[in-house]
Amino acid sequence: MNPTWEPALYRAFDDHRSRPFVDLVARIGPLDPALPRVVDAGCGPGHLTGLLAARFPGAAVEAFDSSPEMVRAARAAGVDAVPADVREWTPGPDTGAIVSNAVLQWVPGHTAVLQRWLAALRPGAWLAVQVPGNFGAPSHALIRELAAQPQWRDRLALRAAGTVLDPAGYAELLSAAGADADVWETTYLHVLDGDDPVLRWIEGTALRPVRDTLDDAGYARFVGELAPRLRAAYPPGPDGRTRFPFRRVFAVARRR
């Protein structure tokens, strides 16, 4: 089941969440003039889709997302987004680049999606992917640990730590699928302000399946138990600001 999204909550840390998209797109080379279409696969609220038009002047930019809430937000922002699921979508013959930013970690078996996309792309086309690689970090591990407690384990089934591959795994996968791949990882150190900033961050992402499963009272109780655990794992520094390390894995591949 796809989680329900709240676009405004997702964008609460917009500057921090946007940087990986910019770093990913910067590594895509020039488009083949015969392949002028650029696709934002899982565009979210569409706030970054316009960067693709700026990066590739003259390209036909396409955007889609599986979340009705996100599609509505993108269209309200002037992006001609359409509803579609990455598990079913297939690139057209004129596709020069597919960009998938912080999407595929939500898709079980997403490696098969990458293989299928590459098989559909023409030689010279690009595939650029970024996925969070922090499922073993306290921000996510503490959610799973709490969900495994007796009061929650019969109600919650969450993603395991092995949701995504490491850089070597993506490099091997993309090479075997017929692409030359540039794969790397980066740990961003986000400096956050305010009370419980890590909790507020994951309420827009990792806690969405919990929010969808529990009623209001249950979710409030779960968050109430999680918050002190997160404060202990991510205490404010002497300046009162919280440092939140966030590892991400990037892959930019060109079809051979």
UniProtKB/TrEMBL annotation:
EC number: 2.1.1.144
Protein role: Catalyzes the S-adenosylmethionine monomethyl esterification of trans-aconitate.
InterPro entries per record: SAM-dependent_MTases_sf, Trans-aconitate_MeTrfase, Trans_acon_MeTrfase_C
Protein family per UniProt: Belongs to the methyltransferase superfamily. Tam family.
Transmembrane segments: none
Lineage per the UniProt record: Bacteria, Bacillati, Actinomycetota, Actinomycetes, Pseudonocardiales
Keywords: Cytoplasm, Methyltransferase, S-adenosyl-L-methionine, Transferase
Catalyzed chemical reaction(s): trans-aconitate + S-adenosyl-L-methionine = (E)-3-(methoxycarbonyl)pent-2-enedioate + S-adenosyl-L-homocysteine
Organism of this sequence: Pseudonocardia kongjuensis
Annotated PANTHER family: TRANS-ACONITATE 2-METHYLTRANSFERASE, TRANS-ACONITATE 2-METHYLTRANSFERASE-RELATED
Compartments where found: Cytoplasm
The protein's name in its UniProt record: Trans-aconitate 2-methyltransferase
